[in-house]
Write a structure and sequence with these properties.
two-stranded antiparallel sheet, single chain, about 375 residues, 3-stranded antiparallel sheet
């Protein structure tokens, strides 16, 4: 009788094992509920049947566990009900594009559930230290790292201004929308020390820099082709921008194609030639006069500022769009009493010009017209 009972128990155990494994080569080992790579690949399997029918058998009708079988929410900790999402709703994009604000508030340790205790990745999620992931820039230097200090000191305009001016796309990577030329993206993402409002918490909405920008000497802006075109259009003509953002209102030709020197407004000296042509402010006038080119333009200290002193190259006066160009002669000595009078059609120069280097000579300019 005992012998028959033992045989019956062995037969029952065999049927139980066969029932779980179903003789399937892809079935998990007898001591595991799922294959080794199941965590990585389970989303498709879980969604293959309606209402997670293949999961509820072990994980319970509400998927919160049954007996020794764990709750699905032990991993999907940001969820309260199906359907399950990878990241919390405050992630702002449902994936990993704009998560900096969340991580800044909650800390990078909240990422450890999926990305591993050291954030170097797991079967469920990639390493946070990857140089790239699905063509996205990641934290090659580690989570919580940024190209600037995070203690609030970087918010000072004198500190972050030069960095943004050199290449605004550096700011866009964390604080702006992932849009391209002509899209006029918002820069309102995730500066924790500024209430999470982004750059536009201090700057005007859809204005990456302060107004008026000409007064800030924007001629030294870097990466014009990629950074300035974001808001001002592919050729900086304002297409795609918001408001008066046409750079060609001031520039005679696109700074994107003529990014160096003064050529997008006037050649140096103005000569009526391409790329701007014979339009203000590139009208030649007396700029090419032999004395001007050989004496003044040949001397760096006298170029432009010799006659246009006071306008500068980074002031609002420099971007004055009304005739005539701002002329304010520098008078280094009594032998140099120059003045200019604009009558609405032409500029008349009076007085004398005293050049000491490389020549010591005084040249009279009484009643001389600038435009003959």
């Amino acid at each position: 009788m005992k012998r028959h009972l033992v045989l019956l128990m062995l037969l029952s155990l065999s049927l139980t094992i066969l029932g779980c494994s179903d003789q399937n080569a892809d079935a998990p080992p007898d001591n595991a509920a799922h294959p080794a790579d199941w965590i990585k690949n389970h989303p498709e399997d879980a969604l293959a049947t309606a209402d997670f029918a293949d999961c509820v058998g072990c994980h319970g009708a509400d998927l919160r566990g049954s007996g020794e079988v764990v709750s699905c929410y032990s991993c999907h900790s940001f969820n309260t009900t199906p359907p399950f999402i990878i990241h919390p709703t405050t992630w702002t994009d449902g994936a990993y594009l704009n998560h900096r604000a969340y991580a800044g508030i909650n800390g990078a340790t909240t990422c450890a559930n999926c990305h591993g205790s050291d954030l170097h990745g797991s079967l469920a999620a990639p390493s946070c230290f990857s140089a790239s992931f699905e063509s996205m820039s990641c934290h090659a230097d580690g989570p919580d790292e940024a190209p600037h200090t995070l203690d609030g000191t970087f918010l000072e305009g004198a500190v972050h201004g030069p960095v943004a001016k050199a290449d605004l796309t550096v700011c866009q990577a964390c604080h702006g929308e992932a849009d391209g030329p002509g899209s006029n993206p918002l820069f309102n993402i995730g500066i924790v020390n500024a209430g999470g409002t982004g750059c536009e918490g201090c700057h005007d909405p859809q204005a990456a820099h302060l107004i008026p920008w000409p007064g800030l000497n924007h001629s030294s802006a870097g990466n014009i082709a990629d950074a300035c075109t974001l808001c001002h259009g592919v050729v900086l003509d304002g297409v795609g921008g918001v408001g008066t953002l046409n750079c060609l209102d001031c520039h005679g030709s696109s700074p994107a194609t003529n990014p160096t020197g003064c050529a997008s407004c006037h050649n140096q000296p103005p000569d009526a030639a391409a790329p701007v042509g014979n339009v203000r402010p590139n009208r030649s006038g007396q700029h090419n006069r032999s004395g001007h080119t050989s004496w003044i333009s040949a001397t760096p200290a006298l170029t432009c500022v010799r006659c246009h002193d006071g306008a500068g190259s980074g002031t609002v006066n420099h971007f004055d769009l009304t005739n005539p160009a701002d002329v304010r002669f520098q008078n280094p000595d009594p032998l140099d009493p120059m003045s200019a009078v604009w009558d609405g059609t032409n500029t008349t120069c009076n007085g004398s010009c005293h050049v000491t280097d490389p020549y010591d000579i005084t040249w009279p300019h009484d009643n001389e017209k600038w435009y003959e």
